[in-house]
Amino acid sequence: MFTRWKKKLFEMTIKSPNGECVFCDLSQIKTSGILYEDERVVAFRDRRPRAALHLLVIPKEHIVNTSALNCSHFELVEHMLTVGKRVLQEECVANQISSKNLVFGFHQYPFTSVDHLHLHCIAPPFMPFYNRLRYRATWFSNYISIETLLEQLKS
Ligand SMILES: [Zn+2]
Ligand SMILES: [Zn+2]
């Protein structure tokens, strides 16, 4: 009974209301401007930037959120970080924004906005400043830094 209910919930979160995943549809992402793309990941600007620079890195494979990850995804997540760091550094230089205190992390279910795994890559300052709280781990696990996630996937 519980499994069935859980499965239902899971199916609900997989798709957006129109039945299509917005991040699986690259033509939609292209409108925000793709900054980097390879066979595994895509990097682009967040449509609703909450800091001086706010990029997203997503896997091309549809993965719902961090709870769907296991040790087999370690290399993929590590690659997302490598790409995120490189692209964000380049954007910092291009926009003359400090690359100190860069933030890389994920929201965790049910605090996820789009049901396709996306790594937030952020160069502060946050705008407005209280958006900092959205990208900070708390007791209710709304957010996880990529470093912590990689540690968890390793063990
Ligand atoms: Zn998707
Ligand atoms: Zn998010």
TrEMBL record:
Alphabetic keyword roster: Hydrolase, Nucleotide-binding
Positions occupied by motif Histidine triad motif: 116-120
PROSITE patterns: HIT_2
Coiled coil (residue ranges): none
Keyword Zinc assigned: no
HIT domain mapped to chain residues: 22-135
Stored InterPro entries: Histidine_triad_HIT (IPR001310), HIT-like (IPR011146), HIT-like_sf (IPR036265)
Record-level Gene Ontology MF annotations: hydrolase activity; nucleotide binding
SUPFAM superfamilies: HIT-like
Protein name: HIT domain-containing protein
Species of origin: Thraustotheca clavata
